Amino acid sequence: MKHLIYGLLIFMVMALPPVSNLLESIMIVHMHMQMPILVVSGFIMGRFFQIYFPVFFNKWNENGFPGILLFCIIMLYWMLPRTMDEALTVQSVQIFKFISLPFLAGIPLRDSWGKLSSNAKNIIIAVFTFVFIVMGIIYIFSPEQICNNYLIVEQITLGWGFITMAICMMIYLAYKTSINPEEYE
Amino acid sequence: MGTTLKQSWKEKADQALGASPEDATLSKTYLFVSFITLLIGGVLGLIQGLNRAGILELPSWLNYYQVLTAHGILLILVFTALFTIGYFYAVLSHNLGGLLPKARKMAWIGFGLKVIGLIFVIVPIIMNEASVMFTFYPPLAAHPVFYFGLVLLVVGVWMCAFGAFIQVANWRKKNKGQHVPILSYFATGVFVLLFFSSIPVAIEVFMIIPWAIGWVETINVMLSRTLFWAFGHTLVNIWYLTAVSAWYVVVPKIIGGRRFSDTLTRVVIILLVILNIPGGFHHQIIDPGIAESVKFLHVFMSLAIGFPSLMTAYAMFAVFEKTARKKGGKGLFRWFNKLPWGDVRFLAPMVAMIAFIPGGAGGIAQSTNQLNQVAHNTLWVVGHFHLTLGTTAALTFFGISYWLVPYLSKRVLTPAINRLGVIQTIFWSAGMIFMAGAMHWVGLLGSPRRTSYTTYFDNATALSWDPYLIFLAVGGTLLMIGVLIQVYAVIHLMFFAPKGETEFPIAEEEDNASKTPYWTERWGMIIVIMLLVIAMGYVIPLVEMIVNAPPGSPPFRPW
């Protein structure tokens, strides 16, 4: 129960108009802070649903792949510039953002991550690394404003956010492949 | 199996017999040069304080800003770095069964690079070619040789960091599944911070060099300042983490107690490592060119660093009370009497901790935008870091020296030197109360920092600062006496004290201590999270500063 409370608490704080207005006023914070925190709130709540609805998860997410696929689809959807614009201008899309990220990305991620093999996890991280590099290049080098609501400099900032996160993930993958934990543990 | 057995015997023998002579020489050299630096830096500090109070006229060949730059660089960069490295290499040697020849060699090369770098840095300052103060960011431009010296200092630090990493990794391979001993864990955290925080300053220096030589005409000042403070603020926390290592591990042993939770200690280290580097922004809280919303978000990052400090304060006083009550201490506060106040190894770090209460609170005040506008660039700031570095870090380092130096030199701390240490601590505390207290107060009245003595054409406000500046000079004089006593004590303990064995004091965990989770050893993960947090902190302002860069500044040499 406490997982549900903690997750909902984060979710509710994120939904407060001054908080969401502040976070959405900066493009990179919108995509790389508000959205991941919403996913995290769902990830925390996920434990509650796993405990109270085990049959559902066993039936629909037996090996973790359906869940991680759903997570990837939702994440990729919210990486599109247009969806961010719509979230700011169309109220129903904003509501969809607040529902999709915690409940359709955070919760499935919680349930799937533990079920995936180590290799599958690394592949998922590698895929996201690749996507982040591509998105980073697009956002940095696009000569046009891709989002109506944000200036070009914010777009470039977001691009560098993607690239730095991709670098972090590459370091993680390099660490995973070059260091054998059995030598130390 | 054979190797493991041999290793464990070697470790036991090393722990029983003290540091190996080669490892001891390394640490002693670092500590000796560190305290000589303290002496020179202290003398410069006194000259500066007397001059600033309007009491002492400097000769024509020496100006206030030269003295200020040398005092800052010697004490902030050199004294602290050499002490930290000397101390932690002694820790690694003691904890991990002696230094590997490779690690020792790297530390020696690092030492050589740092000494050469220091000469390169100091000579231009003496020649009045580099009065750019310890922050050395543009638009003030020094002689290029000054920056070459900084490069060598940074490379020297990197050598020591990698030596330490090799040492720790080697121990972990030979002791699979075990936790790195707690002091070596602190050392790992400190060297991780030293390495990663010196990357931005290295980039800054490589931007400055072509500008100082004249190959490029202008430089992006905002970018340079930001890169500097990513390092500058982390350096503060490197001293702090070094001091904290002694508080958590050494002080409990000296008062006859046990350590507080091992897990909490390691979590504090991890948090300090992860959260630290973006904290640099609170030094730029009134800089132009950074959006207010970004500064607001950065307040969270800055204040987050306060959280592990509050955990530390709780842990330390819990240990004190528990130990004192075991010894029969009673009452709400009377148990304080049971603590060994006459033992300098306890007294110095204890005063250091107490100083951190106003020091830390002042830091939180300065991280707050509106309050910072009152104190920014006034003597308040100088008072603040004389409390944090000058007292919290330095006094803990002094406290450490009273057991570390005799341990390394196979001598003992005599009651006479202990008494001298207590007197030194009293001088230091009184000096800091006068000096840092006066600096804080006169800063609130508007007296600027980094400014030679002036009455601004006998302006009434400026004249009203004078009485406080006299207190500053009095405090500085007391501190100079403290420096002399401290350096004498270190040299005595290193070369002249009676021969004997001194213990390396490491407190044990409680008997019923809970098991520390193994994830705390996964430094790869910790570093990746740290890099993510750095990216969170720096991507927005750096892109803004680079993409919307102003025309840039030519070099300035106003002295």
UniProtKB/TrEMBL annotation, chain A:
The chain crosses the membrane at residues 6-23, 35-57, 63-80, 92-110, 122-141, 153-175. The lineage of its organism: Bacteria, Bacillati, Bacillota, Bacilli, Bacillales. Keywords: Membrane, Transmembrane, Transmembrane helix. It comes from Evansella tamaricis. This is Uncharacterized protein. It comes from the Bacteria.
TrEMBL record, chain B:
The chain crosses the membrane at residues 30-50, 70-94, 106-126, 146-170, 182-215, 227-251, 263-281, 296-320, 344-365, 385-405, 426-448, 468-491, 523-543. PROSITE patterns: COX1. This is Cbb3-type cytochrome c oxidase subunit I. Residues 3-497 form the Cytochrome oxidase subunit I profile domain. Keywords: Electron transport, Membrane, Respiratory chain, Transmembrane, Transmembrane helix, Transport. The keyword DNA-binding does not apply. InterPro entries: Cyt_c_oxase-like_su1_dom (IPR023616), Cyt_C_Oxase_1 (IPR000883). It comes from the Bacteria. The lineage of its organism: Bacteria, Bacillati, Bacillota, Bacilli, Bacillales. The keyword Acetylation does not apply. Pfam families: COX1 (PF00115). It comes from Evansella tamaricis.
